[in-house]
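Before we proceed, please read the two lines closing this message. Let me know whether the structure tokens fit the sequence:

…
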Amino acid sequence: MNEQRITLTVNGRNIEFDAEPRKLLSDALREDCRLTGTHVGCEHGVCGACTVLVDGRPTRACLSFAVQMEGHEITTIESVGTPDRLSVLQQALHACHGLQCGFCTPGIVMTFEAFLKEHPDPSEAQIREALSGNLCRCTGYQNIVAAIALAARRLREEAAHGH
């Protein structure tokens, strides 16, 4: 197939490269953008490990073609916190032991970065419903749910104090 020149806006930066029209966004992020935090698990949109934000909405990168993403803002796990300064959600996952191997964690973080903006005070049932699109083979999900509830509470407290 013929490659075409595309420009993706990823984490606020324009990245230009050649790609075949059938190249998946997950592969483009990992191979062409060198952003390997977006994990590829099932390659069928089931596990949620490849979740990124496209225009602020959780999107399965393994179900999207890179060429479709021109003109859209893509946000990956690399833009959420740093090793020295974790996001509120990442801090809560750490504090509540909400991860084990970490393979699913980037997808969960990206899903809930968006979810908590729309649902600042979620019930446990709402958290579990939103989490149902992210598979974790290591945990029983309880600590992940607790971490998301903790992050929601901390974010509400920050908002109340004007941070």
About this structure: Helices lie at 25-32, 88-95, 105-118, 124-131, 142-160.
